[in-house]
């Protein structure tokens, strides 16, 4: 594959290919020696214009476990803070021989601009752009759902050669600040491709413009959504106050009372339901400590699975002959 820029244009077959490759990577991580030689001699640049802990460290670990050389670039303290453009930065990366660029940027569309510009020959992987998309987060979420709902071997070949199952018919509720969440958007498109049924739960002020035209159910009441949709997956989103420039709800206490996953709502989930959160969590606001730390919670599994999924994405991006963008 040439680039990984979004999930909206990712086909079902390509998504399952990434998830199944991630199963192979996860299996390799159970060995005593976790490192694989697959990307030896390749150089991966983590180009982060936004602060991140989980995503940057996850990509760094993934690249190193594939034996790639890793260069971490932070906009703070770099020439970017002196006014250097994305084009000039890209040409610098081209000059040092970058094979892959993992980019996180506050502007929606920046990864696609980098990939389509002709400034650089490297494969580009979107690690989050503005409020647009975060494809590897959605992939690791789907990977976690498959494993928790269908078993850790969900992607392992059976005797007939089948690679396992997708998420057909699974009910997923994505709750909270959908308007500012690239995670919600990427999950919607990917989960629809994999056959899941997605519901957004949020106040009207925290829904994206045009969301009612998307393939998604919408609820304004979390209690009603839990009762009517009976979700097997409840994904809580962080309130992204750093992206808010207006009052989207009266106060935090009202938000927690109406849209937070508190202890009482946790008890009302269906027996097989799991609780997800992309992190970082605001405990006591969108999720209670009991819900975050319960056996239903997959928060730490998502972090661990992120390494396997990003190993798969980097491997498919950089090994062998790169194909058309997916």
TrEMBL record:
Q: For carbamoyl phosphate, which residues are the binding ones?
A: 54-55, 104, 134, 137, 279-280
Q: Name one Pfam family in it.
A: OTCace
- Describe the location of the Aspartate/ornithine carbamoyltransferase Asp/Orn-binding domain by residue ranges: 168-317
The protein's annotated pathway: Pyrimidine metabolism; UMP biosynthesis via de novo pathway; (S)-dihydroorotate from bicarbonate: step 2/3
Q: Does the keyword Transferase apply?
A: yes
State the InterPro entries in the record.
Asp/Orn_carbamoyltranf_P-bd, Asp/Orn_carbamoylTrfase, Asp/Orn_carbamoylTrfase_sf, Asp_carbamoyltransf, Asp_carbamoyltransf_Asp/Orn-bd
Q: What reaction does this enzyme carry out catalytically?
A: carbamoyl phosphate + L-aspartate = N-carbamoyl-L-aspartate + phosphate + H(+)
Which GO BP terms apply? 'de novo' pyrimidine nucleobase biosynthetic process; 'de novo' UMP biosynthetic process; amino acid metabolic process
Which parts of the sequence belong to the Aspartate/ornithine carbamoyltransferase carbamoyl-P binding domain?
Answer: 2-146
A GO cellular component annotation in the UniProt record: cytosol
Would you identify the family this protein belongs to, as annotated? Belongs to the aspartate/ornithine carbamoyltransferase superfamily. ATCase family.
Indicate the quaternary assembly: Heterododecamer (2C3:3R2) of six catalytic PyrB chains organized as two trimers (C3), and six regulatory PyrI chains organized as three dimers (R2).
- Protein's name in the database: Aspartate carbamoyltransferase
């Amino acid at each position: 594959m040439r680039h990984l820029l979004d999930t909206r244009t990712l086909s079902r077959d390509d998504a399952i290919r990434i998830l199944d490759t991630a199963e192979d990577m996860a299996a390799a991580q159970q060995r005593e020696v976790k490192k694989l030689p697959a990307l030896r001699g390749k150089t991966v640049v983590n180009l982060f214009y936004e602060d991140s802990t989980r995503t940057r460290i996850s990509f760094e670990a993934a690249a190193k476990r594939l034996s790639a050389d890793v260069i971490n670039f932070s906009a703070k303290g770099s020439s970017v803070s002196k006014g250097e453009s994305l084009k000039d930065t890209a040409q610098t990366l081209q000059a040092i021989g970058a094979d892959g660029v993992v980019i996180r940027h506050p502007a929606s569309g920046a990864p696609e601009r980098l990939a389509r510009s002709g400034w650089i020959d490297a494969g580009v992987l979107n690690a989050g752009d503005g409020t647009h998309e975060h494809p590897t987060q959605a992939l690791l979420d789907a990977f976690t759902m498959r494993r928790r709902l269908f078993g850790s071997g969900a992607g392992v070949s059976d005797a007939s050669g089948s690679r396992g199952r997708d998420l057909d018919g699974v009910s997923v509720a994505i709750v909270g600040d959908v308007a500012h969440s690239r995670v919600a958007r990427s999950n919607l498109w990917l989960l629809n491709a994999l056959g899941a049924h997605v519901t957004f739960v949020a106040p009207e002020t925290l829904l994206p413009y045009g969301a009612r035209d998307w393939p998604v159910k919408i609820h304004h009441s979390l209690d009603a959504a839990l009762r009517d949709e009976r979700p097997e997956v409840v994904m809580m989103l962080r309130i992204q106050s750093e992206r808010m420039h207006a009052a989207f709800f009266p106060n935090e206490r009202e938000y927690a009372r109406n849209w937070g996953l508190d202890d009482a709502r946790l008890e009302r989930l269906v027996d097989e339901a799991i609780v997800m959160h992309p992190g970082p969590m605001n405990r006591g606001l969108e999720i209670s400590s009991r819900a975050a730390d319960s056996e239903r919670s997959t928060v730490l599994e998502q972090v661990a699975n992120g390494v396997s999924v990003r190993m798969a994405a980097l491997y498919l991006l950089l090994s062998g002959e790169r194909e058309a963008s997916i």
